[in-house]
Specification:
The chain is mainly alpha-helical and 212 residues long. The chain has one domain. It is 54% helix and 6% strand. The protein has a three-stranded antiparallel β-sheet with strand order 2-1-4. Strands 3-5 form a two-stranded parallel ribbon. It comes from Candidatus Gottesmanbacteria bacterium GW2011_GWA1_44_24b.
Length: 212
């Protein structure tokens, strides 16, 4: 398919160019993370669900304390917070696990920049649906049964560093609306649509609208 071939070429060229442009930002971010809190530079989170359900390791700057993902799910002290997390479409407006540097890099999506490595590896595309967690997809489909068909559509494409929902409200959009937007993107995707999303992405990144 011509679209897939051209998109892959754009991903490789764009991934290399953006990696060079953002290299100074990445270096400063890495230093800030190490000075701000104990732990690795990259987040230690479970694998994400990629195209056709294939699992992959997503690279992301660490914006939380160490073992934050496991802590939320296993620590009895966070049981109430975990319930809120699940009820709120796997998002928390006020998350005590986020570090001070983490708040800044999450607000402006700087923590997402390492995903350019995933793009170059072929796990992701510059533009595509959100890369979901396995448990998130499972639990949210129970909560919103009508989204099961939409999830199948979404998983037929590579997830993206940015996408339709990210430039249209980001974390302010609940799962059922978010998965619908992702499915709409997959159904309507074209090079022009991708370019329009890419053009909107810098403002979403700078403004931090809808980010948590």
């Amino acid at each position: 398919m011509a679209y897939d071939t051209i998109k892959r070429v754009i991903d490789i060229i764009g991934g290399i160019i953006l990696s060079i442009i953002f290299f100074p930002v990445c270096m400063c971010t890495a230093i800030a993370i190490k000075l701000n809190s104990q732990g690795p530079i990259f987040a230690d989170t479970p694998q994400r669900v990629g195209k056709n359900g294939k699992l992959f390791k997503l690279y992301k700057f660490r914006s939380m304390i160490m073992n934050a993902h496991k802590m939320l799910r296993k620590d009895p002290k966070m049981a109430r917070l975990y319930q809120q997390y699940r009820l709120n479409s796997y998002k928390l407006m006020y998350d005590p696990r986020v570090t001070s540097v983490g708040h800044i890099i999450r607000k402006h999506s700087i923590d997402e920049i390492p995903q350019l490595l995933n793009v170059l590896k072929g796990d992701m595309s510059l533009v595509g649906p959100r890369p979901y967690y396995q448990d998130e997809l499972k639990e949210q489909q129970k909560k919103y049964p009508h989204t099961k068909k939409l999830v199948k559509v979404v998983l037929s494409a590579k997830p993206g560093v940015t996408g339709f929902w990210q430039v249209s409200g980001r974390s302010e959009v609940n799962f059922d609306k978010r998965i619908q937007m992702d499915a709409d993107y997959v159904t309507k995707r074209s090079l022009l649509f991708d370019i329009l999303i890419l053009l909107k992405s810098p403002w979403a990144m700078i403004s931090g609208k809808g980010a948590v």
